[in-house]
Every structure is written in structure tokens, then in C-alpha cells.
Amino acid sequence: xxxxxxxxxxxxxxxxxxxxxxxxxxxxxxxxxxxxxxxxxxxxxxxxxxxxxxxxxxxxxxxxxxxxxxxxxxxxxxxxxxxxxxxxxxxxxxxxxxxxxxxxxxxxxxxxxxxxxxxxxxxxxxxxxxxxxxxxxxxxxxxxxxxxxxxxxxxxxxxxxxxxxxxxxxxxxxxxxxxxxxxxxxxxxxxxxxxx
Length: 196
Known about the structure:
Layout: H1 17-24, E1 32-34, E2 52-54, E3 57-59, H2 62-68, H3 78-85, H4 89-96, H5 107-124, H6 127-134, E4 141-143, H7 162-176, H8 179-190
Parallel strand pairs: 1-4
Antiparallel strand pairs: 2-3
Domain NADAR: 34-174
InterPro entries: NADAR, YbiA-like_sf
Organism: Podila minutissima
């Protein structure tokens, strides 16, 4: 299993933060703000329960997958499996923040690609969620929370909103894919699934 995740976004096709930077800082009537999985547009939250097949395993949420990748470099899969099998995405997030566990040394370099990959798979593997995402058109998606200034907007609009940017990149990618391409991508991920 590759620990860096399969790259589905080439560097030339990646949507950079600069594409949206001029509009993220201003509030627009058409912005879609999301955070809690039980509120409108909760499907965009990484805590939203939508199992995905990635790296030969099933993950309850994208949060479980993302947090486990912090420890994917370790030969002993203890922390990885503890996160994958924990009961809630909140617990997965808490475990992923545990700094007594050895964080992979390349984490800062790979975290954006890993997030893009798991978010893309979440939407590709769940057509009902894809429909919700595509129906947002070209509206700006903002993870609105004071709890996170990197993945969210920091609550004041000054955060990087990287989850929102990731979702907009995924929306653009999926909109450009044919149904045959989507089916092939999903099949490539699900075919390698281990029965556990």
C-alpha cells in the first residue's frame, strides 16, 4: 500500500489556493457555508458518515482515513487500525492529534493530496453526494468554523479554507469526468478491497 496516497490530481491540474484567494476573504451571498454533518450541506463535512474504499480497506468517514494516514508510515499498523476502527469521526480526529504517537515525517508535504484523494473518493463512490456537490454549481464552499484556520475559515473568514477549496477542486474534476471514467475510478478502488 502506498503511504503517500495515489495522486489523482497532477500538479498541472491542481486548483491552487490562489484561484479562490481573492473571493474567499469576502462574504458573498452565494457562498455555501458548512460544518456540522447534521446541518444543511453536512455531506461536505469529513465527519459525514459515507464509507469509502481506499488502500484496500473500508473507512467509515473521510476523517477516519485522513487521520490514519498520519501513522501510515509505521510498520506496526496499531495506530492506523485503531483510528480506522474507532466508533466516531470525532474520536478519529482526537487520535490523529495525539502527538505522543509518531507523526509521519512528510505529513505537511502530503496532507493536501491525501485530503483531495479521500474527498474525491467519497463523492465518486456515493452518487447521491456527487449530485449535491454538483448542484452547488460554481458557488464558493466554505468550511465555517472557529476550530480550524487551515482546513476551515477560522470562523472569521481569514482562515485558508482548504477543505472548501478541496471540495471545489473535486467538484470541477468530477464535472469534467464521463460516467465511464467515474465507474472505472470507483472500480479500481473497490476491486482491491479486503474483507475484514
